[in-house]
Specification:
The chain is mainly α and 171 residues long. It has one domain. It is built from seven helices and no strands. The chain is globular.
């Protein structure tokens, strides 16, 4: 049973990242479900506080996603740039071996990815640095940061639990 939960958790985390690129299902919900599945498998042991705080953050993201117009919610403009930038930032942030650095790295990557998209011919309409750009960044970037943050925390927890020499009391 634990193997099924482990595989399901990994699939949910990967599906959360894919949902960043094609936002038809909130990726943050999938990533959060993946974190819970990994906890239930016995492979990861995140604290109750960590799960509760990320649960509240995911709830806020879902409420914001519901409140946005459907055109903005379903838009995929620049999501590849944000997703890849966030993934690169996530792995750069993981070099700090701290949960905070994982989220900061993902946020910086999403921001830089959206700036890169705004510099392309397809992204010129966002007109960086305008209020329109920052509205789009908040609407599309926040769910990406939360999804990547949860995914990065799961990866970092796995590394810290299975290779404790890296951990050195970071949690």
């Amino acid at each position: 049973m634990s193997v099924i939960l482990l595989i399901s958790g990994i699939v949910a985390l990967v599906a959360g990242f894919v949902a960043i690129l094609r936002p038809y299902i909130p990726g943050a919900v999938l990533a959060y479900a993946g974190l819970w599945l990994l906890k239930w498998s016995g492979e990861l042991h995140p604290s109750v506080e960590l799960l509760a705080s990320w649960g509240a953050i995911v709830a806020v993201v879902v409420v914001i996603d519901i409140m946005l117009p459907s055109g903005v919610t379903r838009a995929t403009n620049g999501m590849t740039y944000m997703g890849v930038g966030g993934l690169v930032g996530l792995f750069v942030g993981m070099t700090g071996f701290s949960l905070a650095w994982v989220v900061i790295g993902a946020a910086a990557g999403v921001f830089l990815g959206s700036v890169a998209y705004a510099r392309t011919p397809g992204g010129r309409a966002l007109d960086f640095p305008s209020s329109r750009f920052f509205q789009y960044l908040c609407a599309k970037g926040l769910p990406a940061v939360v999804t990547l943050g949860i995914t990065g925390i799961a990866i970092l927890l796995a590394v810290m639990e299975h290779y404790p020499g890296f951990a050195l009391s970071q949690l």
